[in-house]
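quick one before i forget lol
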Amino acid sequence: MRIFVAIEINDKNVLDSISKIQSELKINAKPVKIQNLHFTVQFLGEVADQMVEKISRDLCDLEFVPFSISLSGVGVFPKPNNPRIVWVGTSDGINELEELVINIQKKLLRFGFSPDKKFKPHVTMFRIKNKIGDITNELEKLSRHYFGKQMISEVKLKKSELTPNGPIYTDLLVVKGRK
């Protein structure tokens, strides 16, 4: 099954703020469904059921104290004149988020999963399939936009099923932070 580790965005005010920008930003791109907004900690790809069970058991031991993170600013990968992804950035709470991600990646490394690139905290808001041109001006207006605070209190192992209508994500494991 196709799996990944994620931290979901579930604060109503943050979701409403992102949704508002998705409807206002007039670009030829597919918005990510509100219920699918998340930080991808690590994408693992196709993984056998027995390995999923082993990973789940190991992730159950993950310990972290819940913390909040601010979501602010909008950017793109790879560049504004050829965007593929439009994302929401982060500010306060980045250090705690990066520390949590490193701890998760250490656990996954035991099973042979190493990250393909350094974690860059962002939440994908749009995916762009076709070339749409330079959106620098649109992004400039949102470079400091504040979306709100999100409490990071859960890490999830998720299954991803690709469909013609977009991905369907299913929770396989929820690890809650401990106070």
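fyi The mean pLDDT is 94.
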